[in-house]
Amino acid sequence: MANILKKSEQELLLGNEAIVRGLVESGVKFASTYPGTPSSEVGNILEEMSDKVGMYFEFSSNEKVAMEVSAAAASSGVRSFVFMKHVGLNVAADPMMTLAYAGIKGGMLIMSADDPSTHSSQNEQDNRYYSTLALLPMIEPSTPEEAKDMIKGAYEISEKLTLPLIYRTTTRVNHARSIVKFGNIIDTPASGHFVKDDKRFVNIPAYARGNRVRLLELYAKAQELSEVSPYNFIEGSGEIGIITSGVSYTYVKEFISDISILKLGFTNPLPENKIKDFIKGKKAIIIVEELEPFLEDQVLRISGQNQLAVPIYGKRTGHLPRAWEFSPDVLKGIKNIVKVKDMPIPLDPCTIKLPSRPPTLCAGCPHRGMYAATKKAVGNQNVVYCSDIGCYTLGVQPPFNAADFIICMGGGAGAAGGFAQVTDQKAIAFIGDSTFFHSGVPALTSALFNDHKIVMVILDNRTTAMTGHQPNPGTGRHYGNVNTDAIDVEKLVKGIGVKFVETIDPYDVKGAEQVMKDAMAFDGVAVVISKCACPLELKKQKLLIPKQCVVDQDLCIHCYTCLKMIACPALIKKDKKVEVDSTQCIGCGMCANVCPKNAIKVKQ
After folding, report:
1. How far is it, in rounded angstroms, from Cα 119 to Cα 325?
2. What's residue 348's pLDDT?
3. Which end of the chain has the smaller Cβ count within 10 Å, N or C?
């Protein structure tokens, strides 16, 4: 982590590091999140240093709760920041939509870190539409330096309008690095006072109708601010104009010259007069933006309303793609309209032999044992494997093939009940410990309430692993002055009325297999808790005891059961022999547990 608090003029920062620096400079005193890539580093950094700057920070149980606690802080006059990945805003949208009606008193930013090309997500939805749906102002930075600098101005806009503001980034902004100049740090109150105002903060229908009108009036004021915002500016000149925003602006700047550019950073409401004046007199307008034609459609509307007979090119005309993130190479789609610099000639890929490395469960991952035990217990029975969002999504890969249905956080647990109700297939839902607290508990209570005969397997690896090993309610939280006990998953499950509850060690594959057989035979809701810490987390905490698995070649009969059931990357088939890669093996003994001839030994 870069020294964000360092007293220097500038630093080379990751986009997410720059965002944290922007929060510090803006005197933000309250932040909340549920971790999700590409926003995760913001939370990791705040966990380490928030107490040093007098900021309260929490990992909430899900994004909805994160939105609500930050909303309460901002409604009490304290500057707050809530952040999440793009699909997380779906979870938080319910409180956000009504929060727009109520507004806030201290500044509040809602960071949506969108993921074009789905680098680490199940979809690439364009969250710019949330700003128009909620009638909330939106700011979009293009670079890490802008990501830092725009935060202070965004808080000023939020406070001037008394509205939360959507601060939208994308993966290439969050995860890019650049030189970021540091500014002065201001101080704001760390505590506030909530002044009761039922008509504003209690949105029953009678009050909501008036607040709707108030929101529209504030939205009109936001329009005025957008027209004069320094984040919307024109540079260059020429008969052809480009309107762009976000990281697309950087591609335009690098590969297109001698062009007039309208760069938009305050992207909702759009500066309609500035856009109208920019279009006038041009031979053509090109809209360069990632994902949906959000800007393009509005520019077409503005052009039509003002009778501007200027051709507008972009996604609607097929010149630029609607799917996936852009790269400089995408700009070749408009080279017949404007001169685009050639991309540097890449090396011939035929001369470069790079090994492929698809994502996979780590060596010694306890999920491997649970999947192996489940597959063995299921045998030839007809089941539907409902999986979820996290490391265990990788259960879709051979030899496990244990993910038939994945939609969203907690979605597998909920869907399992539907499959159990309308098919004759047994539904097995895999869900992680953090995801269970996020949205699995309601799905489990619903299964109980509706008598859905499902098996829920809670893969409790004692951390929120895939997003960077953040804590969750099942681990407790220990940082600064916060010291909370872990919530016991087994006690919670039993407490809501589940009759079949078993906790197993997934490294004991044979024992886990028998428990899974019993769970599948149970007439009702069955919960199996696979409890074993993630080896990477143990390494980080320096708690992993060094061990090593070795294969006794005299006992090995080359049945390859270990490879077929566990498929650990530390196991290697070489000249028909099974060997252990000592650089990867952690000595968990999972492979030894399934070897029918006891040919694999675990040594200290």
Report:
1. 10
2. 61
3. C
Q: Please name the residue that has the structure tokens 């809701």.
A: 525
The domains found in the chain, sorted by start residue, are 10-228 (3.40.50.970), 233-334 (3.40.50.920), 366-540 (3.40.50.970), 548-603 (3.30.70.20)
Secondary structure class of 556 (helix, strand, coil): coil
Of the CA atoms within 13 Å of residue 555, those in its CB half-sphere come to 11
Residue (of 342, 113, 82, 86) closest to 247 by Cα position: 113
| Six-digit token string for 582 | 């000592």
pLDDT tens per residue across span 454-466: 999 999 999 999 8
Distance in angstroms (rounded) separating the CA atoms of residues 195 and 180: 39
Q: Which residues pair with 579 in a beta bridge?
A: 572
Q: What is the DSSP string of 364-394?
A: T-HHHHHHHHHHHHHTT--EEEE--SSGGGG
Both tokens of 95, joined, read 């409180």
Do the beta carbons of residue 263 and residue 249 sit within 8 Å? yes
What pLDDT is recorded for position 359? 84
5/322 Cα distance (integer angstroms): 40
CA–CA dist 528, 370 (Å, integer): 10
- In degrees, rounded to 5, the angle at the alpha carbon of residue 57 between the alpha carbons of residues 75 and 203 is 25
Mean of pLDDT over the chain: 94
Rounded Cα gap, residues 600 and 553, in angstroms: 9
What secondary structure letter does DSSP report for 176? -
How does strand 240-245 pair with strand 260-264?
parallel
Place of tokens 């040093």: 52
Helices and strands (H, E) in the chain, number of each type: 21, 25
- pLDDT at residue number 358: 78
Q: To which residue do tokens 């104009």 refer?
A: 241
Contact between 267 and 137 (Cβ < 8 Å):
no
Beta-carbon count within 10 A of 380 CB: 5
Model pLDDT for residues 450-507, shown as the tens digit of each residue: 999 999 999 999 999 989 899 999 999 988 778 899 999 999 999 999 999 999 999 9
Contact assessment for residue 566 and residue 532, using Cβ atoms and an 8 Å cutoff: no
Task: Look at residue 299 in the predicted model and tell me its pLDDT.
Answer: 98
Token pair of 221, please? 């004021």
Q: What burial class does residue 217 get, using C-beta atoms within 10 Å of its C-beta: 0-12 exposed, 13-18 middle, 19+ buried?
A: exposed
Which residues have a Cβ under 8 Å from the Cβ of 186 and sit 6 or more positions away?
25, 26, 27
Which of 533, 399, 531 minimizes the C-alpha distance to 465? 533
Torsion over CA: 128, 131, 132, 134 (sign): positive
Which pTM was predicted?
0.93
